[in-house]
């Protein structure tokens, strides 16, 4: 008789897989990808090291899955900020500010998601991550042009420019959490966020954004 997996067994496997992902994310949030070891993750999850490879073919696959889930959470938070009674331009500023503030509140986590050198598979996932944000921003820019809160412009080009500008502006400060720190901005977090917002919104509207 052929072996048939029961619903209970499938549920247990799904729970174990989710627990491994959660522990991997906890490890990355604490020390970045550089400190996340399969043996440590297995210990945190309460499973044997070999058990992890029954759920994920490799360390890279585990990290890629964890990265997808973590970044989708960030994308969802930004998408939520792009709703409400404000003009599209104000919603966009709210979303950009949220992105920057969340990154600076958890620099190790943000560094891991935005820029930490890992492997080509994670670099591919980062491109997907950036495109997701760009699509959200593009929609908001188009809405802003329609409601008159933003001037006529190339929404697709402007959205990708926003993603690049905010990510690159944060890399220096976030790199303090990396194994090879680089020079950080000599600004307090709120001052840095205000400066980023001023640059982004001035580029979109042609006028200075008020802190």
Automatic annotation (TrEMBL):
Residues 14-74 form the HTH tetR-type domain. The keyword DNA-binding applies. Residues 37-56 bind DNA. Signal peptide: none annotated. Keywords: DNA-binding. GO terms for molecular function: DNA-binding transcription factor activity; transcription cis-regulatory region binding. InterPro entries: Homeodomain-like_sf (IPR009057), HTH-type_TetR-like_transc_reg (IPR050109), HTH_TetR (IPR001647), Tet_transcr_reg_TetR-rel_C_sf (IPR036271). PROSITE patterns: HTH_TETR_2. It holds the Pfam family TetR_N. This is AcrR family transcriptional regulator. It comes from Marinobacter oulmenensis. The lineage of its organism: Bacteria, Pseudomonadati, Pseudomonadota, Gammaproteobacteria, Pseudomonadales.
